[in-house]
UniProtKB/TrEMBL annotation:
Species name: Brevibacterium yomogidense
InterPro entries xref list: Gly_transporter
Domain Glycine transporter: start-end pairs: 4-75, 88-162
Ranges where the record places region Disordered: 223-247
Superkingdom of the source species: Bacteria
Record's GO cellular component terms: plasma membrane
Broad class of the protein's primary localization: membrane
Name used for this protein in its record: Glycine transporter domain-containing protein
Amino acid sequence: MLSLDLLGVLAFAVSGNLLAARKNIDIMGSLVLGLCAGLGGGMMRDVILGRVPNSLQEPIYLIPPVVTALTVYLLGQRALHARVPIVAFDALGLGVFATTGTTIAMDAGLPFASAILLGVLTAVGGGMIRDVLANEIPAVFNGSDLYIIPAIVGAGLTALLWGIGWFESWVALVIAALVFLVRMLAWHLEWRVPSPMRGWSYSGARSVLPRRGRLFAFRRPSGRDRGVFAPRRSRKTAEPDKRDGED
């Protein structure tokens, strides 16, 4: 499980370093973002469990953020437009940490629901710290697409299979891959959960959907760019608004 945990650290560290490059943050700031993204969620989990964080007990956890910060720094201009890789590495870390965080919580003897909660916290905690430090709306809160739900599903599957004794290393990889796939599809296809009705449109739904399907026809109108984690279509529709403002 250590290797899988390190993969999650690496993935989130890369997302933090690439975000730092897009924000024109220097190499030390990039290292800080990478460390916070890669280690933040696990530290929160371990503190709640009342133990010394794994990243402080095992110095090997510090290697991925340092290596990725140097790598992104050497990439230079090529890292400035790496928006899709940021989302992809973030999704990979989300899937891995949802699995490893839940297994650590289950191994510590926590109840089913508590283990899922800690697994989700492990998955989203580092990314939240990264986004706040980089002055981005955290992906958990920006309402653009599914983010925390894939983590909940992954943590729930992990806890369930652990509880019935069917959890193996290959199962952890499958669950992490499933969370990654769902998250990327949600980002690309703009899968969303219901939000407050204000600012949403219902036009056209009555003519194309049966009565029972109309609840899910609400779509947020095109607006301003909601950050690097906003879906691709939302960002494209926001561009004309920006040009109009410049004129």
